Amino acid sequence: MRGVFQNHLGLSIGRGNMAIRGDCNMNASWEHFEHQADIGVRGYGDTLEAAFEQAGLAMVAAMVPLERVGQPIRVVVHCEAPDCELLFVDWLNSILREMSLRRMVFSRFSVSIQGERLTGELWGEAMNNQRHEPSVEVKAATYYSLKVGRAAQGRWMAQCVVDV
Amino acid sequence: MNKTGLIRHSEWTWEVPRAGSMLVPGLLYASDALIEELDDKVYEQLSNVASLPGIVKAAYAMPDAHWGYGFPIGGVAAFDPKVGGVISAGGVGFDISCGVRTLLTPYFFDDLQPIRTKLADALFYHIPAGVGSTSRLRLTDREMTAMLTGGSQWAIEQGFGLPGDLDRIEYQGRCDEADPAEVSKEARHRQVEEMGTLGAGNHYLEVQIVREIFDESIARTFGLVPGGVVVSIHCGSRGLGHQVATEFSRRMVMDASEYGIHVRDRELASVPAYSPPGKSYYGAMRAAANCALANRQILSHFVREVFQTVMGGAPLPLLYDVSHNLCSLEDHELEGKKKRLFVHRKGATRALGPGHPELPDCYRETGQPVLVGGTMGTASYILAGTAEGDRLAFSSACHGAGRSQSRSQALKQYRGEDVVEKLRRRNITIKTRSYRGVAEEAPAAYKDVSEVVRATAGAGLARMVARLEPMICVKG
User: Is the pLDDT assigned to residue B362 strictly greater than 80?
Assistant: First the structure.
C-alpha cells in the first residue's frame, strides 16, 4: 500500500492518518510524510483525479480534523498547467486560496481533469475556530518532493511538501 | 550529518567542497553538536543552491539551519546580477519578510507578576491570532496600494505608532523598489481582513524578561536592563505574502528554462535578477515585505493599547524590527571591489556591523540589533552585528532555534495540554486557541537555541548581548 515511491524517495510515513473514502473509491487514501520543518502530503487513488482529491484532504487534515468539517457549501475552481505536477501544485494552492478568501474550510473534493485543465469542486463550510480548532496554517503548496505518477498496484499517487 | 564529506576550517566553520555542478562551495557555521544534529538534506540543499547561476563566494547555512524546501531554512546566498546572477522566490520563501520586532517597556518582572493573568487575557483578546484570524481593519484597494508602498511609514501615518519608531526598523520601515502593481488582485483580496493579525504556526507574541546580559555597554544602548520586561512579536506578511510567493514561484518554474536555467528541484526555480520576470518578482516581494512591516507596526500599536489600558500610560519604545525571509539588493565588497548583489536570506537575519552607513545614529557604534526568537519554553536572544560579519556571510546571522523534530514527531511525543501545564509550573503563561498547535511547537521539538547563539557568536557572525525568557506567550 505504501508502494515504491516511499522507497525511491527515502521518505518515511508520518502519522497513520489513513482516511479511506468509502463513498465511491475504496482504494483512495491519503497520508502525511515526514519533513523536518513542514509537512508532506500524499494522496492515492485508482485515478489521477482521485489521488489529487485525497492529497487535498491530506493538506486540509494538516490544519483541522476533517470529521469536524461539514459540507453544505460548494465552491468550484479551475486550474490549467502544462504538466501533471504543476497542475497538482496549482490544485492545492487553489484550495488554500479559496480557504483564505472565503474564510472557509473544506472536507470533500471532486476533481476532473481534461488534458491540461482541471475543474475542482470543493465542499465545506465557514471556518469556526471553536468547532474546527485549526492548529497550523498551510501557507502554500511547494514544488519540493513533488511527484505525480503511478505507485504500486497501478494506483495513482500525488505528493508534495506544504509550507506551514 | 555525516562529517566525512566536510572540511573543517575552524571550531565553528565547515565547508562543503565544490563538486559536480556547484559553482561555489557551501559554508556551514555550526558547533560539533549542531553539525551532528543536522539532517543530510541540508547538505544536499546547500549544494543545490551553490549550483545556481551567478552565486558568489559561497552558499551559507547559519547555525540554526534545517531542512527546508529548495533552499535550506537558515540559508544565505548572494548573486551578482552583472554575471547573470539570479533571483529566486524559493530563496525567500512563502512568508515574505517574516520577522521579529521587540518593544521595550519601563517595567520589571515584579511589576507584571500581580497582573500577569489580566495582561495575558487582554493580549489574547486584543491581538488577533491563529488560523483564519481577522482584525477590525479593512483596507480599500487604494489604501492597500499605499500600504504596499509605505510599509511601517504608512501605518504610522494612519496613527499606528510614533514617528520615532522608524529609526528602529530595518530600511526605516519601508522597503524601497516595492511595486504594488505587481501584487495581484487575489493577493490583495487575501489581505483585506488580515492587517494586524499574528497568523499561526510558529508565530507568537511574547512578554519576556531580560534574564542575562552579556555585553553591558551594548545592552545599555539597546535599552535592555537585567530583569526588565520587553515584548516581542514574530509574524510576517500574512495571506498577501503567501499569495505573491505562490504566484511568482510558479512563474519562475515556467520561465526558468527560457533563460537556460535548469534546476534539480523545481522549488529552486529562478530567473536572472535583471530579467523582466526577475524585476517583477523583486517589486512584488518588496511590496509584500512592506505589508509585513505594516502588519508588525499595527500589532505593536495593539500591544501598546493593551499595556496602556492594563498598566497606565507609559510608552513602549521600539528596540528594533528585523526581517528573516527577504531578498535585498545590497552593496558588498568582493575581491576588493564593491558589488551590488541580490542577497537572499531565508530564515536568516541581516546583521550589519558597527559603522555601517545604513544603521541609524543610535546603533551606529553598536552594530545592528539581531533579534533571535526561541521557543515558548526556552529563551530568545538579542545579538548585535559585527564588522567581520560582512566577510563571513554578507552580514547575516541566525534567526531562531530551528526545528530538530518534524511536526508529526512532535505530535506523537507531546500533548498540548501537558506542554501548557509544564510551562505554567515554570511560571510561563501560554495563551492559545489550539493545543494541537502547542504540541507541534513544543520547545523540545526545537534545537537548543543557546547552542545556536553560541555558535553564531563563536563564528563571529554576531555578538551576544542579552538572553530573554518568556513570561507570557500568545501563540499564533
Answer: yes
Residue A103 is classified by DSSP as T
Question: Residues B241, B94: contact at Cβ < 8 Å?
Answer: yes
* Contact: B242, A103; criterion CB under 8 Å: no
| Alpha carbon of B317: minimum distance to chain A alpha carbons (Å) | 31
Question: For residue B400, is it within any domain?
Answer: yes
| Cβ contact B67–A35 (<8 Å) | yes
Q: What is the CATH number of the domain that holds B114?
A: 3.90.1860.10
Q: Which residues of B are catalytic, by number?
A: 399
In angstroms, the CA A122 to CA A124 distance is 7
- Grade residue B472 by pLDDT with cuts at 50, 70 and 90: very high
Which of B39, B70, B409 is the closest to A144 by Cβ? B70
Q: In total, how many domains does chain B have?
A: 1
Q: How far apart, in whole angstroms, are the C-alpha atoms of residue A150 and residue A143?
A: 18
Q: How many residues does chain A have?
A: 164
Which single residue is written with the C-alpha cell 526545537?
B446
| Sequence-ordered list of residues with C-beta below 8 angstroms from that of A118, at least 6 positions apart, any chain | A52, A78, A79, A80, A81, A87, A90, A91, A111, A112
Element (H, E) at A95: helix A84-102
| CA B370/CA B62 separation, integer angstroms | 13
Domain interval for residue B273: 3-404+446-475
- Sequence ranges of the domains in chain A: 3-163
In a domain, B410, yes or no: no
Q: Which of A89-93, B119-123, B268-272, B431-435 has the lowest mean pLDDT?
A: B431-435
B200 to chain A, minimum CA–CA distance in Å? 6
Instruction: State in Å, rounded, how far the first CA of chain B is from the last one.
Output: 32
β partners of residue B77: B344
Tally of CB atoms within 10 A around B108: 15
Position B55 in a domain: yes
Nearest Cα residue to A159 out of A2, A3, A30, A71:
A30
CA–CA separation, B79 and B83 (whole Å): 9
ipTM field: 0.92
* Alpha carbons B159 and B304: distance in angstroms, whole number: 12
Nearest Cα neighbor of B100 from B291, B305, B360, B369 is B369
Of A15, A101, A133, the CB nearest to B408: A15
In CATH, the architecture of A3-163 is 3-Layer(bab) Sandwich (3.55)
Give, for B54, the enclosing helix (H) or strand (E): none
**Does any domain span residue B421?**
no
Burial environment of residue B140 by CB neighbours within 10 A (0 to 12, 13 to 18, 19 or more): exposed
CA angle, residues B213, B318, B99, in degrees to nearest 5: 85
Q: What is the DSSP letter of A66?
A: G
For residue A83, the tally of other CB atoms under 10 A from its CB is 9
